[in-house]
Amino acid sequence: MFVQVKYQLRSRGRSVLVLCVAALLAACMAFYVGNIGVNKAALQSLSDSVPVTVRITSRNGAKTAGLNIEAKPFDHLTEAGVHDVRCTAVAAGAFSPEVRAQEMFLGGDTIVRAGNSLEALELSADNLHFADGQSAAFLSGDSAQCVIGEGYAERTGLHPGDTLSLEIYTVRQSMNGTIYQMIGDAALEIIGTHSAPGGADVILPVNFLRTEAETAGVSFLYDSCSALVDDSTHLKDFKAEMQKYFMDINLSAEDPNAGDALSVEDELFVKTASRLRQNIALFQSMLVPFFALIIGLVVLTTSFMLPNGTIEPFDAALHVAVPETSELTITYGDNGYGDLMTSLNNARMSAVLLFAGGVIAAVGIVVLLLYFFIVKQKKRTAIERSLGMSKAQCRISLMAGILVLALVASVIGVGIGAVLLQSDVLTDTAQSETEEIDTMFSIWAKGQTEVTEPETDATVPVAVYVFIPVCLLVFIFLLSLVLMNRNLKTEPILLLSGKGE
């Protein structure tokens, strides 16, 4: 067998062919490694493409604004790995001397709204008109500045550049009514006006309002708060931490004002991550069979699938049902589903190409081996038969070498596949906090009697380690037997004279 291999390597043409097939297999290996990188990137970037919003709500989850949110749990939330925090607070003010002189404060004559951004206050920049050098960035600070409503400016005779002297009160909603607590007088610089319909009389930074309240020894309350989780792949840890400070949503709870429950809007993320992990498990389970198939090199892949759903059919149906919509500009928000689907479809196409390349490489190797060890050995067969060897002995002489090579290659392939299956190369991809579905704070799961976690065990039956090599050997044996019988049909004298080639 070794002499035969040495003889084959002496032929430049055959050596080039061997190198080409080896290069094809090496390309499949590189493609495979790259595909693993794509898989990892898809899972790791899931937090960006499918952001998870966390929101403080009432105990039954029905109310997300007009709440009594204490400062301490708010601080715990905003310090627990979140970003893009949006928070607001409400207050009441007394501007006129008559209101200030009232023995009991009953709501005053000024509606005060505080926030840390225009988005938090749900205001459009088009409705705000700032003095020169001023902008909405003041909301993110704690300066004593404010924007007043145009109607309020007319009633009070105030304009940008003036100072608003206002007696401010905190507002707490209760089952028995509204409770006000005085913070004190504040001198606010007016830096602009707003024309938002139904807007507050005075808009100021929420950090300023909180600082004033705490300085006066008054309990400060936010009335709304939301944020985006930094790392959604560790939702289980995040929820475990938040469980110390917030209640889980109870749909039957009655208190509509207590802001001590948390809603984690993670339905799309959890279902997408579970699907990804399910596919990665399938990816792992196919590792051994494909390694055996290409005789020692890697040829496997996976595909990503999201639940069916697309915007285009709905948009087309909408234009048919309501033709007037053709004159409108309609924007669809899908929480990053479209972008994620495009990315995963590209990875799916890569998977198809990798699978095709692997099949071609496997067939190429088998054909190459049989060509060198069977078809091109006609003269050797003729010599052996001329020396008195029987047809059966000739078959054993030629087929033993290729079957030994196939057996060794199959064992190596199965071994490499088994080692990689148990190594961190693939298992790290699937090991994340998405392994277990945690429905704590997930209001979307509250109405379901059971949330099923997909089967994701990437175990390979022991029989596979034997079945795949046996199938490969049987295939090579049968094909070799057919080609060998064709060689034996030609008389030795014709092969030796060159007439039987």
What percentage of amino acids are in beta strands?
15-25%
Q: What number is the mean pLDDT?
A: 75
SSE string, helices as H and strands as E: HHHEEHEHEHEEHEEEHEEHEHHHHHHHHH
Termini separation comes to 23 Å
Largest sheet: 6 strands, mixed, barrel
**Percent range of helical residues:** 40-55%
From the alpha carbons, calculate the radius of gyration and give it in angstroms.
Answer: 37 Å
User: Rough shape?
Assistant: rod-shaped
Task: Note poorly predicted spans.
Answer: 1-10, 295-310, 425-435, 451-458
Read across the widest sheet, the strand sequence of neighbours is: 3-4-9-6-8-7
Tally of helical runs: 18
Structure description:
The chain is an alpha+beta fold. The protein is 48% helix and 16% strand. It is built from 18 helices and twelve strands. Strands 3-4-9-6-8-7 form a six-stranded mixed barrel. The protein has a two-stranded antiparallel sheet with strand order 2-10. Strand 7 and strand 8 form a beta hairpin. Helix 15 (391-422) packs antiparallel against helix 17 (462-488). The longest helix is centred in the last third of the chain and has 37 residues, at 337-373. Residues 1-10, 295-310, 425-435 and 451-458 have low confidence and may be disordered.
What would the keywords be for this entry?
disordered N terminus; alpha+beta; two-stranded antiparallel sheet; 501 residues; 6-stranded mixed β-barrel
Describe what is shown at a glance.
This protein is α+β, with helices and mostly antiparallel strands and 501 residues long. The chain has 18 helices and twelve strands.
